[in-house]
Design goal:
By secondary structure, this protein is α+β, with helices and mostly antiparallel strands. Helix content is 24%, strand content 22%. It starts with 11 loop residues before the first strand and ends in a 7-residue tail after the last strand.
Length: 342
């Protein structure tokens, strides 16, 4: 049995510092997009459909035309949730808030005083050196480029984002002006948002509330895509697709919005290579679940725990990018203690 590292806390947790609300979905028109009275909550509708057999069949069925025809004749009946604009609406409006909190230099739980002191010193040094400006810039870019729309972003003729910082509105942003593939540009119009996020994460202000309204010109009556619910133990006859709604308004999960905002990791080893997939969400192992791949493998010593165990006790990491990554995981929050059984 491996001996636990005495310099690592067995109880260690960090509260998340970017707290997203759910995203509420409304239908409106592009010309009247900023008129709050024109935006109507989008509701889910239930559909009963007769689908075709399209799953991969057993070889015996594939090779026998009679058996294949018999399978095709079977009705694939489904009940599903759907959501769409009506024929007088051409624009999806998505609204949510993001609260930014300070205090990342202090764990919410830690049972090792020596570790607490060494980590706090390292975090304060990072704050003095960077002021969280790079992370703040990337978070701001993911708000400006409307990455949080996910599938709703595809095929939109126009995309506009309105941001309000503690009640102070910024100028409307054209989401297509900001890249989804990298964070190379420095957009001057985003500086107020960048500064506000950086100052909060650095502890110069206790908290910050950012209100976001995003508008996607999709076309009259077009389908929109709220979050899909993960339903356990679905019984026979239940809906095969259940969408998320709050108070009869179609919505997107706060977790899904949060994942988009923290899709800022371009520091993983495979980024920029044929194996890379562009920016990925900040995760301890660089997990991208829809690809079934972890881009930060402990064997490459690029995962969070390998880097954090060195960084938190005062060791220097190989690059400032590694420091950005470690601090971004702590902003994400989580439980990171080392078990005494390891």
């Amino acid at each position: 049995m491996a001996k636990k590292n005495d310099n690592t806390a067995s109880v260690l947790a960090y509260e998340k510092k970017l707290v997203l609300s759910d995203g509420y979905m409304y239908g409106t028109t592009w010309e009247n997009r900023t008129d709050r009275t024109a935006a109507k909550p989008l509701k889910l509708v239930e559909k009963s459909v007769r689908g075709t057999i399209s799953n991969r069949l057993k070889p015996a069925v594939q090779k026998d035309p009679a058996k294949l025809n018999a399978e095709v004749e079977k009705p694939n009946l489904q009940r599903v949730d759907a959501c769409a604009l009506d024929m007088k609406q051409d624009t999806l409006k998505l609204s949510f808030t993001m609260k930014v909190l300070s205090g990342v230099e202090h764990p919410s739980a830690c049972n090792n005083m020596m570790f607490h002191q060494s980590y706090t010193a390292a975090a304060k040094e990072y704050i003095e050196k960077t002021g969280f400006k790079e992370l703040a810039r990337r978070y701001a870019m993911n708000i400006a480029n409307a990455r949080f729309l996910w599938r709703n972003r595809l095929g939109a003729e126009k995309l506009a984002v309105d941001v309000t910082i503690d009640g102070n509105p910024m100028a409307e942003l054209d989401a297509y002006a900001y890249s989804l593939r990298n964070f190379d540009e420095n957009a001057a119009e985003l500086q107020p948002l960048v500064d506000a996020i950086a100052e909060t994460l650095s502890g110069k202000r206790d908290s910050l509330l950012v209100h976001v309204d995003c508008y996607a010109l999709l076309g009259e009556g077009q389908e929109v895509y709220p979050s899909e619910e993960l339903v356990f133990d679905k019984g026979k006859g239940d809906k095969s697709k259940v969408l998320y709604s709050v108070d009869d308004t179609a919505a997107m999960h706060s977790q899904k919005l949060s994942n988009a905002i923290r899709t800022i990791d371009t520091w993983y080893p495979a980024y920029g290579t044929e194996e890379g997939v562009g920016p990925i969400a900040i995760e301890p192992y660089g997990a991208v679940t829809n690809l079934g791949k972890a881009f930060r493998n402990p064997k490459e010593k690029a995962d969070f725990y390998t880097l954090f165990d060195r960084y938190a006790i005062g060791e220097s990491l190989d690059s400032i990018e590694d420091e950005h990554y470690v601090m971004a995981v702590l902003v994400r929050g989580g439980v990171f203690g080392q078990s005494s059984k390891e």
